[in-house]
Please model this.
Amino acid sequence: MRIDVLTLFPRMFESPLGCSILKRAQEASLVEIALTDIRDFAADSYRKVDDKPYGGGPGMVMMPGPVFDCFEHVQKLSPEKSRTILLTPQGKRFDQKKAAELSKEKRLILIAGKYEGFDERIRIGLDAEQISIGDYVLNGGELAAMVIIDAVVRLLPGALGDEDSSKDDSFSEGLLEYPQYTRPETFRDMKVPDILLSGDHAKIAEWRRQQSLERTKKWRPDLLKDDNG
Ligand code: 6GU
Model:
């Protein structure tokens, strides 16, 4: 998979992409992630990429010119057909289902905007899908892009050490994950449930399923209502 990110702040990505699973996945060539600075496509020597909104009001709006030029440049960097995503709080809410869907793509182009928003012609002209990561406002799309990259890359075959380890994750079957324990057997008077020490794999699987259901009912009943897209 190839992921291109268009951003005004490429340096924000350095640390998350340079650590842990995202680092290893790139080193193993499971994913190639390329950052392109939208400001490099500004038309003037001040490198201006935003301007005041027509009709008045606070804040600044991303101009269409630099974003279009940057997008057209990036598209040509690879021949793969791409799925284009605009990060905006107006978008459809990102979830595990969307992460799984995106992980099947050969190429993603993520566009992160700063400031108060994008000129509407960017959304229309690039025919981009809009995604939000939740109902709150961030200063820009960069952190949202990183969240999406993280959630998608861990689903690529081989990204996690253990092939199966994303299958039991919370949400992967619409339920929260079951409780996990490791050594020691007793910690500050709290014991590991006997069943996990029993060696009876069928019983353990059944217990885990039950625990997942109970926790979901208690902590995230909304997930059981099938109204999450
Ligand atoms: Cl994608 N962008 C911004 N600016 N805020 C957000 C978001 C995106 N998703 C949730 N809040």
